[in-house]
Write a structure and sequence with these properties.
The complex is a heterodimer of chains A (258) and B (264).
Chain A (H helix, E strand, L loop, with lengths): L17 E12 L2 E12 L3 E5 L6 H8 L7 E6 L2 E2 L7 H5 L2 E4 L11 H11 L5 H14 L15 H13 L5 E5 L7 H16 L3 E5 L3 H7 L2 E6 L2 E6 L1 H6 L4 H10 L1
Parallel strand pairs in A: 3-8, 3-9, 6-7, 7-8
Antiparallel strand pairs in A: 1-2, 1-4, 4-5, 9-10
Helix pairs in contact in A: 3-4, 3-5, 4-5, 5-6
Chain B lengths: L4 H26 L2 H8 L2 H7 L2 H32 L4 H16 L2 H15 L8 H28 L2 H9 L4 H31 L15 H12 L3 H31 L1
The chains are: A alpha/beta (258), B mainly alpha (264).
The structure holds adenosine-5'-triphosphate (ATP) and magnesium ion (MG).
The site of magnesium ion (MG) has 4 residues of chain A, from helix 1.
Protein name (chain B): Amino acid ABC transporter permease
Subcellular location (chain B): Cell membrane
Family (chain B): Belongs to the binding-protein-dependent transport system permease family. HisMQ subfamily.
């Protein structure tokens, strides 16, 4: 269990075997301290689910890992590389971290296939043939092979999110970050997205998932992290935390969402 | 009053139609059609205008406008990106250029380039003669307007688009070029087309540069024709030519707006 008054020194090297290692992370928006000293890690091959009330800083933590937000203080290592190092090649690093957003963020002016290929060609410099082959493989994986020529606007929310997952996978990332991937979906479309994520987890993909789907966390997660007010209040095996929370704040939150 | 709101609105509309009809009839009957036709729509003079008004004047207007618009679009994009830059001096420079050329009348810009520039820099010459000058002048004026439109368009693209592109590993510039700017242009196609219509008419200011006969565009053509014939018919002809250019553009804009409305 981690607490806001963690004493670990901010100069520790990366934790061995960790896909993500966050040390003493603080994040301010102006005067507003949103993350108040987070220590947190995701080991290779692990699925870690992050839960907590709205405004607790879950998205901010996730966005700090890919530097969509700049940490104010503290260190973050991804696959042993320090992302908070000012000299790091952030574009290169990001291409190895898959990110899936609540709002899908597919490129509306491109077909599904082009959505999956564009970064492969521009960033990884693959030939069109190579990119298309990888894209088709990933479209098949999310069950949308027949939609490769469709534009995002013509897909359901669930289909769009599956395409977004396939797009992230097409960069062949070493780990995947999900920020409430099913929160913008109609209830009947949540299942198809969770099914794709389950399959990914079963293949051994390292995943960090901000979610309100406690069932998914319990079934698929290796670790559950509960955040509130910018700190990690409690973490542990999902079944353990969900059925036997140690902290009052965790209990209060779970009683509301379960 | 037993009239429902809808009924009353209907009667008011009928009343409006009647008024418009009466005014139109009054104009038609009070006008001196004989003189009108002689001075404005003289068939012999109309015949004389063709085909040169098309093959020279209309063609030149299209060329000048196209050159100015193309340069203005490129300049506008650069200015817009500078406006949005995180580097202060870029922002200030583009704001200065935009405010200057948006605020000045186009005529002043033409004069500055056509008369001022050669005197200020006697050893320099704007390349491609009059075409170069009109491209610069129209481009500067149009670019200053389009910069603000393009900037608004870029800002209207949801932030998530840039974020998604960046998390796929694209650089800021790559993300701008492949993801953000294409979407911005879709949003601003209607206002850009409006700018094209304005530039079509502003291209007439080229007369200030002094033109040879084969460089006449529509307005200059019409004016010269009016003077030599002592008749307004050439002006009507070139006015019609402007409409041939601008009305289809307006229709295209309206189509695009209707389509954009439906897509939402
Ligand atoms: N760009 C920003 N500028 C200023 N404040 C921000 C910004 N992003 C987030 N915040 C603030 O940071 C706090 C944490 O936000 P965050 O989005 O991380 O919460 P969250 O746990 O993901 O909540 P939710 O479940 O609603 O997504 C909130 O109070 C929010 O208002
Ligand atoms: Mg969030």
């Amino acid at each position: 269990m981690s607490s806001p008054t963690n004493t670990s020194s901010p100069t520790e090297p990366a934790r061995a075997g960790a896909a993500i290692d966050v040390q003493q992370l603080h994040k301010y928006f102006g005067d507003n301290e949103v993350l108040k000293g987070i220590d947190f890690h995701v080991d290779n091959g692990q699925v870690v689910c992050v839960v907590g009330p709205s405004g607790s800083g879950k998205s901010t933590l996730l966005r700090c890992v890919t530097l969509l937000e700049t940490p104010t203080q503290g260190k973050i290592f991804v696959e042993g590389v320090e992302v908070t190092d000012p000299d790091v090649d952030i574009d290169r690093l990001r291409s190895r971290i898959g990110m899936v957003f609540q709002q899908f963020n597919l490129f509306p002016h491109m077909t599904v296939l082009r959505n999956l290929c564009v970064a492969q060609q521009k960033v990884r410099k693959l030939s069109k043939e190579q990119a298309v082959a990888i894209a088709r493989e990933n479209l098949a994986k999310v069950g949308l092979s027949e939609k490769e020529q469709a534009y995002p606007a013509h897909l359901s929310g669930g289909q769009q999110q599956r395409v977004a997952i396939a797009r992230a996978l097409s960069m062949q990332p070493q780990l995947m970050l999900f920020d409430e991937p099913t929160s913008a979906l109609d209830p009947e479309l949540v299942g198809e997205v969770l099914a794709v994520m389950k399959e990914l987890a079963a293949e051994g993909m390292t995943m960090m998932v901000v979610t309100h789907e406690m069932g998914f966390a319990r079934e698929v997660g290796d670790k559950l992290v509960f955040m509130d007010g910018g700190v990690i209040v409690e973490e542990g095996a999902p079944a353990e935390v969900l059925s036997n929370p140690q902290q009052e704040r965790t209990r209060a939150f779970l009683s509301k969402v379960l | 009053m037993a009239l429902s709101k809808r009924k009353r609105a209907q009667y008011i509309r009928y009343a409006q139609y009647v008024v418009i009809g009466v005014v139109a009839v009054a104009v038609v009957f009070s006008a001196n059609w004989g003189d009108l036709q002689r001075f404005f729509l003289n068939p012999d003079i109309i015949k004389d205008q063709f085909p040169a008004v098309i093959t020279t004047a209309l063609k030149n207007t299209l060329i000048y406008t196209a050159c100015g618009f193309t340069f203005g679009l490129a300049l506008g994009l650069v200015l817009a990106l500078m406006r949005l830059s995180s580097v202060g001096p870029w922002r200030w420079l583009s704001t200065g250029i935009i405010e200057l050329f948006r605020g000045l009348p186009a005529l002043v810009v033409f004069l500055a380039l056509g008369q001022g520039f050669p005197r200020a820099f006697p050893h320099l010459e704007i390349p491609f003669g009059n075409i170069g000058t009109v491209t610069l002048a129209l481009g500067l004026v149009g670019g200053a307007y389009m910069a603000e439109t393009i900037r608004a368009g870029i800002q209207a693209v949801p932030k998530g688009q840039m974020e998604a592109a960046r998390t796929l590993g694209m650089s800021h510039t790559q993300a701008m070029i492949t993801v953000v700017v294409p979407q911005a242009f879709r949003i601003i196609l209607p206002p850009l087309t409006n700018e094209l219509i304005l530039l079509t008419k502003d291209s007439s200011l080229i007369y200030i540069l002094g033109l040879s006969l084969d460089q006449y565009e529509l307005t200059k053509w019409g004016r010269e024709g009016m003077n030599s014939e002592a008749n307004l018919t050439p002006i009507i002809v070139i006015g019609f030519c402007y409409l041939i250019i601008t009305v289809p553009l307006s229709i295209v804009v309206r189509r695009m707006e209707a389509k954009a409305g439906k897509a939402r």
